[in-house]
Amino acid sequence: MKILLMGNPNVGKSVIFSRLTGAHVIASNYPGTTVEFTKGHMRLRRERIEVIDVPGTYTLKPTSKAEEVAVEMLREAKENSNIVINIVDATNLERNLNLTLQLLKEGIKVIVCLNLWDETKHTGIEIDVKKLEEILGVPVVPTCAISGEGIAELIDRLPEAKANTYEYDEEERWTEIGGIIEETQRVTHRHHTFLDRLGDASIRPATGIPIALVVLAATFSIIRFIGESLIAYIFEPIFEGLWKPLMVKFSTILGSGGFIHDILIGKLFFFNTESEEFIKGVVVTGKMVAGNMVMVKTATDGVVPARVTIDFVQSMGLFTTGLFVPLAMVLPYIFAFYLMLSFLEDSGYLPRLGVLVDNFMHRLGLHGLSIIPMMLGLGCNVPGALATRVLETKRERFIAATLMAIAIPCMAQIAMVFGLVGKFGVRGLAPVFGTLFVVWVLLGIVMDRLLPGESPEIFTEIPPYRIPYFKALSKKLWMRTYGFLREAVPYVLLGVFIVNVFYSLHVIEFIGRLFSPIVRGVLGLPNEAVAALIIGFLRKDIAIGMLSPLGLTMKQLIVASVVLTMYFPCVATFAVLVRELGVKDMLKATLIMIVSALLVGGALNLIMR
């Protein structure tokens, strides 16, 4: 037996789902599509039942991929005599009943959940639940998912769910809904609350733009604070205090050198205990003794005592850089970003941001809701690419996916850019992110002018501001963070392995010489930067980290960071975009990426001093 949760977007389905299923849930794509849905399990009278959170839909006549999947899942449920919990926003009963009546006409077993029941009192709405249940002919249960009110009754009444074909004329549906509203609902006057006034101010340009700037500035300040705190107080102490001594001992067991050692541990670094500086180009003249001390011969100081150590960013071993970068440098920022994104989603701010930027986004060939894939892309380009399915036309999806892949760096890459050029302050960071923003705008305008077709108007519901439900937010945060680890760590390890093998076989040197006219002549970068460009296809963050030991100038670091962001998406994003856009459109997007990266990188090399 299965239970489907169906309803309009923003009616609290995810919170109801969280209340029913607890912690163990799975997010997956519907077969043959990239539309994501969530499933979990609950106990009903000692029976284990699967619960599916169906993509939100306004109608059973689909207008998007997500709605097509919702209709297909309903068809399968009907064939298997499953139950649909129709979750209705009690504060918007008239609009929500449109889907309810369509579900009843399908003849499937339905129970109606009148969610957000607490907000009806705040908005001056009174609903006669018994009368509504009598008219619809199926159970109706008022709930407040955030507080848990009514959830127990909803579960108890699940066996009462029934199919009650509600006959009406398709063309007269809204008239029928009007009659139901007249019989069951009464609205009284009430004064606007602070959240009502804030919600209105959020979508007016005069007040909404300052609010958006404050929200975004606060969001990224919090992300940086949480990320840096986790790195400084948790992850770096673990790697430096616990993991590094183990790796140094393991290095000794492997003979402190050789092919296997370079693959697993990477390069060793020597720290002069007399001058307190790292030593380059050394020759070891003695065996390692207690305290990881060894005598080394340098080109300038002769034989000096040095301490053997590992630089987790530069060593490039599978067990050193391969683990440190995704876990200690990137994961803290990913966690912080998805925490804030989930909060903005569940509080009701993101739809308002979409409405606010709608006019501007139309100049780029998109509508306001395309800001959501862009913001998701800041966390990880993979969910950002998947989120382009919320856009209605193929033209919009192409523009949004191309702009995101070219000019939206993921949080992992942003973290590495901060580590690389952040030491130069605003002089280093502003050119990187300023250039990417200008490219995002100009390229959007160009594609809007050149690609045939139009951008449809925005159509979205703006929910009231709500305090996010912590349990649902935590579940979403865990699923997204786990998804990053599942996607990132294997590619980082693969990238580090390939770099070491390529270096051992002198492949990097060959490719560097081959592309020297472009890398040195156009971009002003050394041939060694080719390795980073190659690995950028696997992981952009690792690629940027590979620039650190090259001793590049601020100008070169800025050019390299911009080019690495623009020239190609990582392989995981590339695979998703091929499925989303098709091979032909992905080849077009790839050509745009490469040409844009070379033009912008070359321009920066000429303009900057």
Automatic annotation (TrEMBL):
<keyword id="KW-1133">Transmembrane helix</keyword>
<dbReference type="InterPro" id="IPR005225">
    <property type="entry name" value="Small_GTP-bd"/>
</dbReference>
<dbReference type="Pfam" id="PF02421">
    <property type="entry name" value="FeoB_N"/>
</dbReference>
<feature type="binding site">
    <location>
        <position position="22"/>
    </location>
    <ligand>
        <name>Mg(2+) 1</name>
    </ligand>
</feature>
<dbReference type="InterPro" id="IPR050860">
    <property type="entry name" value="FeoB_GTPase"/>
</dbReference>
<dbReference type="InterPro" id="IPR006073">
    <property type="entry name" value="GTP-bd"/>
</dbReference>
<keyword id="KW-0547">Nucleotide-binding</keyword>
<feature type="transmembrane region" description="Helical">
    <location>
        <begin position="488"/>
        <end position="508"/>
    </location>
</feature>
<dbReference type="InterPro" id="IPR011640">
    <property type="entry name" value="Fe2_transport_prot_B_C"/>
</dbReference>
<dbReference type="Pfam" id="PF07670">
    <property type="entry name" value="Gate"/>
</dbReference>
<keyword id="KW-0408">Iron</keyword>
<keyword id="KW-0342">GTP-binding</keyword>
<dbReference type="GO" id="GO:0005886">
    <property type="term" value="C:plasma membrane"/>
</dbReference>
<dbReference type="GO" id="GO:0015093">
    <property type="term" value="F:ferrous iron transmembrane transporter activity"/>
</dbReference>
<feature type="transmembrane region" description="Helical">
    <location>
        <begin position="364"/>
        <end position="386"/>
    </location>
</feature>
<feature type="binding site">
    <location>
        <begin position="7"/>
        <end position="14"/>
    </location>
    <ligand>
        <name>GTP</name>
    </ligand>
</feature>
<keyword id="KW-1003">Cell membrane</keyword>
<feature type="transmembrane region" description="Helical">
    <location>
        <begin position="428"/>
        <end position="447"/>
    </location>
</feature>
<comment type="similarity">
    <text>Belongs to the TRAFAC class TrmE-Era-EngA-EngB-Septin-like GTPase superfamily. FeoB GTPase (TC 9.A.8) family.</text>
</comment>
<feature type="transmembrane region" description="Helical">
    <location>
        <begin position="211"/>
        <end position="235"/>
    </location>
</feature>
<feature type="transmembrane region" description="Helical">
    <location>
        <begin position="514"/>
        <end position="537"/>
    </location>
</feature>
<feature type="binding site">
    <location>
        <position position="21"/>
    </location>
    <ligand>
        <name>Mg(2+) 2</name>
    </ligand>
</feature>
<dbReference type="GO" id="GO:0005525">
    <property type="term" value="F:GTP binding"/>
</dbReference>
<feature type="transmembrane region" description="Helical">
    <location>
        <begin position="247"/>
        <end position="270"/>
    </location>
</feature>
<comment type="function">
    <text>Probable transporter of a GTP-driven Fe(2+) uptake system.</text>
</comment>
<feature type="transmembrane region" description="Helical">
    <location>
        <begin position="323"/>
        <end position="344"/>
    </location>
</feature>
<keyword id="KW-0812">Transmembrane</keyword>
<feature type="domain" description="FeoB-type G">
    <location>
        <begin position="1"/>
        <end position="164"/>
    </location>
</feature>
<keyword id="KW-0406">Ion transport</keyword>
<feature type="binding site">
    <location>
        <begin position="32"/>
        <end position="36"/>
    </location>
    <ligand>
        <name>GTP</name>
    </ligand>
</feature>
<feature type="binding site">
    <location>
        <begin position="115"/>
        <end position="118"/>
    </location>
    <ligand>
        <name>GTP</name>
    </ligand>
</feature>
<dbReference type="GO" id="GO:0046872">
    <property type="term" value="F:metal ion binding"/>
</dbReference>
<feature type="transmembrane region" description="Helical">
    <location>
        <begin position="398"/>
        <end position="422"/>
    </location>
</feature>
<feature type="transmembrane region" description="Helical">
    <location>
        <begin position="589"/>
        <end position="608"/>
    </location>
</feature>
<feature type="transmembrane region" description="Helical">
    <location>
        <begin position="557"/>
        <end position="577"/>
    </location>
</feature>
<keyword id="KW-0479">Metal-binding</keyword>
<dbReference type="InterPro" id="IPR030389">
    <property type="entry name" value="G_FEOB_dom"/>
</dbReference>
<dbReference type="InterPro" id="IPR011642">
    <property type="entry name" value="Gate_dom"/>
</dbReference>
<protein>
    <recommendedName>
        <fullName>Ferrous iron transport protein B</fullName>
    </recommendedName>
</protein>
<dbReference type="Pfam" id="PF07664">
    <property type="entry name" value="FeoB_C"/>
</dbReference>
<feature type="binding site">
    <location>
        <begin position="53"/>
        <end position="56"/>
    </location>
    <ligand>
        <name>GTP</name>
    </ligand>
</feature>
<keyword id="KW-0410">Iron transport</keyword>
